[in-house]
Specification:
single chain, 513 residues, alpha/beta, 8-stranded mixed β-sheet, 5-stranded mixed β-sheet
C-alpha cells in the first residue's frame, strides 16, 4: 500500500463540508483535488479556505509558510476524470441516494482499482450506495462533522460489504490528520446521530407532558447534572435551537422510521408543530427561544413567593439517601421530625428513583397533600450544588410546595419546582442517554469505547454516555428506567439486556464481551 503521506485525496462537492474536508487533508500534508459540478465552485472553495487560513495567520495561530504549503496542495479540477490517480475520493454532495449511486459508478470508472471511495453521508445507507459499484469492498462511509477542522471525530462506517482493509486504512489515515476515528456499522444514524436520540427527544417529552417549561428543563440539565465536575454546556432546547429544527427533527423522524418505529426513538409532535410554523431556532430568530442580535431572550427565573413556612419540621422518608437528606434539612435551617410516621404539621420529603411522587408516596402510605419529592441522583448537599429539583404530587398543598422550594434554596442554590413526573427531569433524560448508548453497544454497532469517545467529541457531552452510566451505577440507571417503565407503561423506557446484565454482574457498561 502506498505510504499515507503520499496519498492523493479527491473531494467531490465543495460546500461547507467538502471544503472543510479538503482543508483538513491539505493541512495534514496531502495533495487534494477538488471537483464540483457547479462551474467555479471548486475554485471558490479554495478561496474560502485561503480566507479562513489567512485570518489564522493574522492572529498568529498559523505560520505563513504553513499557509503557503497548505494552499499549494489544494487544486480545483474541472472534470471527474481529473480525479484519476487519487488514492481516496470523498463524496460530499446532496443527500440523495440515486444521485450518490450514479456518482460512485462514475468514480469507479475513473479511479484505479485500489482507490478508496467514501461517502460523507449523514443519513443514507452506505450499503445501498456501495451496491451500485462493481467493487463494494472499497466503499465506506466517512462521516465528518461541521466545522470539519474543529470537530475532532470522524465516523468510519462499514457497509455490509466494506472490507476490513478499507476500514483499517481509513482509521489510520484519520489518525494522521489529528482527528479521532470511531468505527461503526452501517445502521440508521450511524453512531453519533443515533446516540443523540436520548437528550433532545426525552426533553421534548418532558415539556410535551407539561412537567416543566423549556427554560426550566434547560436550567436543570445545565446546572443540576454534573459528571467529573462538568455538566452539559447547552440545555437540550438551546442545542435544538442552535442546530435548527429543520435539521434535527427530520433526523428524529428518519431514525424512528428506519428502526421500524422503535419506541426509544419516537419523535415529538411539539417539534413537528414548530417546524411547520417556521420556528426553527437561531437561524429564523425564533425557536424554543426568541433571539435578538443572536442572543436568546428568556424571562428571568421566577422566585418562590415570600411567606412564613407553614410546617414546623421535616420528616424524611426511608431510603438510601435518608441520612444525607436529614443532614441537608438541618443545614438549611429546618428541624427534624423523628417520629416513625410523619406528624400532622410536618413536610414529608421523599427521594424516588424513576417513580413519580404520587406512586412513591401512595405506595408508602404517606399523605400526598404534604409530600414533596427531591431528586438526589446528582449532588444535593448544602453548598455542594447549583440547583436542586423538587416535585409535587397533584394533591400537594401549593403553599407547602413553595415553602419547600424556599427551604431548599436557603444556601444560595436555585430550586426548581416541577409537576409530577416519573424520573423528575434529569433522571429521565440522562437515563435515556445511557439507555440508547447501551442499545447501540448491545447491537454491536460500535465498541463501547468508541461509543463514549464519539459522543463526547461529536456531541460535546461532559463524558461519554456509558461512562455516565458507570458514574451513576448501572444498577441505579436500570432502576430509574424500570421505575419509569412501571409508571408509564411506555416501552421506550425498558433497559436493554446489555445494561441489565452488567447491572446484575456489577460490571462496567464499558465492559465488552
Amino acid at each position: 500500500m502506498k505510504p499515507f503521506e503520499a496519498f492523493v485525496v479527491g473531494v467531490v462537492g465543495t460546500g461547507a463540508m467538502g471544503r472543510g474536508i479538503a482543508q483538513l487533508f491539505a493541512q495534514s500534508g496531502h495533495a487534494v483535488r477538488l471537483f464540483d459540478a457547479a462551474s467555479g465552485a471548486a475554485r471558490s472553495a479554495c478561496d474560502a479556505v485561503a480566507d479562513t487560513l489567512r485570518k489564522q495567520v493574522d492572529k498568529g495561530k498559523l505560520a505563513p509558510e504553513a499557509f503557503e504549503a497548505t494552499m499549494a496542495r489544494m487544486s480545483p479540477v474541472a472534470a471527474l476524470a481529473e480525479l484519476a490517480g487519487c488514492d481516496l475520493v470523498v463524496e460530499a454532495i446532496v443527500e440523495n441516494l440515486e444521485v450518490k449511486k450514479r456518482l460512485f459508478v462514475e468514480l469507479e470508472a475513473v479511479t484505479g482499482p485500489d482507490a478508496l471511495l467514501v461517502t460523507n453521508t449523514s443519513s443514507l445507507s452506505v450499503t445501498a450506495i456501495a451496491a451500485a459499484c462493481a467493487q463494494p469492498a472499497r466503499v465506506a462511509g466517512y462521516h465528518f462533522f461541521n466545522p470539519v477542522p474543529l470537530m475532532k471525530v470522524v465516523e468510519v462506517i462499514r457497509g455490509a460489504r466494506t472490507s476490513s482493509a478499507t476500514a483499517e486504512t481509513l482509521v489510520a489515515l484519520t489518525r494522521r490528520t489529528g482527528h479521532a476515528p470511531v468505527v461503526a456499522q452501517d445502521t440508521p444514524g450511524f453512531l453519533i446521530n443515533h446516540a443523540g436520540r436520548g437528550y433532545g427527544p426525552e426533553a421534548l417529552r418532558v415539556v410535551a407532558e407539561g412537567v416543566a417549561d423549556v427554560p426550566t428543563v434547560d436550567r436543570v440539565m445545565r446546572e443540576q447534572v454534573v459528571f467529573n465536575g462538568s455538566g452539559f454546556r447547552l440545555g437540550p432546547f438551546e442545542l435544538l435551537d442552535l442546530t435548527g429544527l429543520d435539521v434535527s427533527h427530520p433526523v428524529m423522524e428518519s431514525i424512528y422510521r428506519q428502526f421500524y418505529d422503535e419506541p426509544r426513538f419516537r419523535p415529538s409532535a411539539l417539534a413537528a408543530q414548530r417546524v411547520a410554523g417556521g420556528l426553527l431556532g437561531r437561524k429564523t430568530g425564533e425557536g424554543f427561544y426568541r433571539y435578538e442580535n443572536g442572543a436568546p431572550v428568556a424571562a428571568p427565573e421566577d422566585e418562590p413567593p415570600p411567606g412564613a413556612t407553614p410546617f414546623a419540621r421535616v420528616w424524611v422518608g426511608p431510603g438510601p439517601r435518608q441520612a444525607a437528606l436529614r443532614e441537608l434539612a438541618v443545614a438549611l435551617g429546618a428541624s427534624l421530625d423523628d417520629a416513625a410516621q410523619p406528624r400532622a404539621d410536618s413536610l414529608v420529603l421523599i427521594a424516588p428513583l424513576g417513580l413519580d411522587a404520587t406512586a412513591a408516596c401512595t405506595d408508602a402510605g404517606l399523605p400526598a397533600e404534604r409530600t414533596v419529592a427531591i431528586d438526589t441522583l446528582f449532588p444535593f448537599a448544602a453548598k455542594a450544588c447549583k440547583r436542586r429539583v423538587l416535585m409535587a404530587t397533584p394533591a400537594t398543598d401549593p403553599a407547602l410546595a413553595q415553602a419547600a422550594r424556599r427551604l431548599f434554596a436557603a444556601d444560595g442554590a436555585r430550586a426548581s419546582l416541577i409537576r409530577d413526573s416519573a424520573g423528575f427531569v434529569a433522571q429521565r433524560v440522562v437515563a435515556m442517554v445511557v439507555a440508547v448508548a447501551c442499545e447501540i453497544a448491545q447491537q454491536r454497532i460500535a465498541s463501547p469505547g468508541d461509543i463514549d469517545l464519539a459522543v463526547r467529541l461529536g456531541l460535546g457531552y461532559p463524558t461519554g454516555p456509558l461512562s455516565m452510566g458507570d458514574a451513576l451505577g448501572a444498577a441505579t440507571v436500570a432502576a430509574v428506567l424500570e421505575g419509569m417503565h412501571a409508571c408509564t407503561g411506555d416501552p421506550r423506557y425498558r433497559p436493554s439486556p446489555w445494561m441489565r446484565r452488567r447491572a446484575r454482574l456489577g460490571l462496567s457498561l464499558l465492559h465488552a464481551d
